[in-house]
Amino acid sequence: MATQRIAIIGGGPGGLMLARLLQRQGKCPVVLERDRHAEERPQGGSLDMHSETGQYAMERAGLREAFMAAARPEDQGDRLYNAEGELLFDRNEPTDDRPEIDRSVLRQILLNSLTPGTVLWGRRINRITHGKGGFVVGGDGWSEQFDAVVGADGAWSYVRPLLSDAVPLYEGVTLFELGFDVSRHPRVSKLTGNGKMLAVGDNRALITQRNGDGHIRGYAGVRLAESSAKEWASWSGENVRQALRDVFAGWAPELRDVIETGDFIGVRPLYALPIGHSWKNQTGLTLLGDAAHLMSPFSGEGVNLALADAVELADALTSTDDRSSVSQYERTICARATVAAEGAAQGLRSVFSFTGVEHVLEHYRARVHA
Ligand SMILES: Cc1cc2nc3c(=O)[nH]c(=O)nc-3n(C[C@H](O)[C@H](O)[C@H](O)COP(=O)(O)OP(=O)(O)OC[C@H]3O[C@@H](n4cnc5c(N)ncnc54)[C@H](O)[C@@H]3O)c2cc1C
Fold first, then answer.
1. Which CATH architecture fits 6-73+97-168+274-349?
2. Taking the chain, what is the end-to-end CA distance rounded to the nearest angstrom?
3. What is the distance in A from the centroid of ligand 1 to the CA of 152?
4. Quick one: fold of 169-273+355-369?
5. What is the pLDDT of residues 90-137, one digit of tens each?
6. Is any atom of ligand 1 closer than 6 Å to the C-beta of 168?
7. What is the DSSP letter of 161?
């Protein structure tokens, strides 16, 4: 018999997509999210949605129209500069089928698609125990019984250690996130073009990416020891900016503009689970998205995989033999994520190397000719 009462831990894109798909198949899942409301934290920048994973999931969820109405196919351009500010690659037309959408907009589409009351906000899970044929899930001062629990709770998943000993490891690179309004930063807008700009030098990089509503999101990427990344994270925005000025000294002034003029948003050290992460199937308990296969953003696959996982898991949980279907789901998503994680690790190594720009240029040219 298919599982009845399902707790989805985490209301990110993966967890919300799973809830939507289960509701379409007559289930009543509950999403337990630690944030107190949808706007509690900035949701990050623009995501490109791949046809065979992210877009396919939106289609299966009956949300293709809402997605296309909000997506920005015109923002798929790519530019590559070297540290001297020389433009090495410039593709400004939307030739890929990978429309961009702001993460906050995607999340809102998913939230709007759910039956009111599906997401229980302010529910940080800190207890999951076995109980009467299922699980007791709890936080501070409350607990509830469920037949099945899905850990869609991201990089630092509470659920994952119940299934696996794997822990995310620091990738050696930290991104410093910056925000720009196009109206106040016309030079950064010009540099960025219609999509994403990457400037690569000796083991460091600058990235800017056009978002919706006249915003641009930027990142300064630096190879740093984990302890230094933690130390920098405790500094004021102005002290971080000063340190970045030193790191990017000698770069072209129009590129350094990104560091000089951006509003400082935060420090993002990059972590990844070991490539090929998998776990032994346990009845009633599984993982999805970053909780299952956290990787660096250098393959652009994270959110796409989380959404595609949700499709496979919704099918498994509503099948007549959900135990073996979930086990098959786990094998499928782990195999698929392994390929993406290898790409992400390779992407990160290419960008942050002594010969970064040549490798990245080769990769960009190969994509055009693929
Ligand atoms: C800088 C950066 C850029 C990126 N760019 C891209 C890109 O261009 N393309 C792309 O595909 N991917 C990108 N990614 C990756 C992408 O953001 C993630 O892969 C995606 O968000 C994973 O979705 P998820 O639903 O699995 O987890 P998350 O989005 O992390 O959601 C997890 C949710 O669980 C909640 N939660 C956590 N712990 C608990 C708890 N104990 N109790 C209750 N709730 C909890 C959190 O509050 C959160 O809402 C990027 C990531 C970063 C850091």
1. 3-Layer(bba) Sandwich (3.50)
2. 46
3. 9
4. D-Amino Acid Oxidase; Chain A, domain 2 (3.30.9)
5. 987 766 678 889 999 999 999 999 999 999 999 999 999 998 889 999
6. no
7. G
